[in-house]
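User: I'm preparing a small set of examples for a lab meeting where we compare how different chains pack in three dimensions. I only have the primary sequence for this one, and I'd like the structure in token form so I can line it up with the others. Please keep the answer compact; I'll paste it straight into my notes.
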Amino acid sequence: MVVCAILFLAGVGGPPTVAAQTATYTPKDPQLRETIAHLDRVMFDAFNRRDLSALKPLFAENLEFYNDGGGVSNYQTTIDNFKALFERNGATGLRRELVEGSLEVYPLPGFGAVEMGNHRFIHTENGKEEVGTMKFVQVWQLKDEAWKVTRVISVGH
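Assistant: Understood. Below is the structure token output for the 157-residue chain.
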């Protein structure tokens, strides 16, 4: 250790370097990951169809939705926001696509799971396709044999 410090101070070893580590995601529970991936597809298939009645039961009544573009909203405000978004974008082709390979799911023992990833929202504006890519985190709770989202964090708007 002393030799390394002396070599560094003498300029022999050059400045210390730090190698960045890239961790490859491997699900702790592959079955849980598939369950949440399925629920993600169900949620956003409903979103892409603008099917509010199919979206509502996927969110818990105690929902907290954090959005860096719009603040914090509860269940009712979130549902009202979806409704308004669908009405404003009836002809724009608004849709959501999960960025392939970005979905990660982590178990929350005794509660449910945390889902995180990146997704794109795409719509047509002035004849041109517009794409916005954002990060998201959703906390899913398994209660009474039903999965519901209790928290959403959506950033990068």
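A couple of notes for your slides: The two ends are 48 Å apart (CA to CA). Residues 1-19 have pLDDT under 50 and may be disordered.

User: Perfect, thanks.
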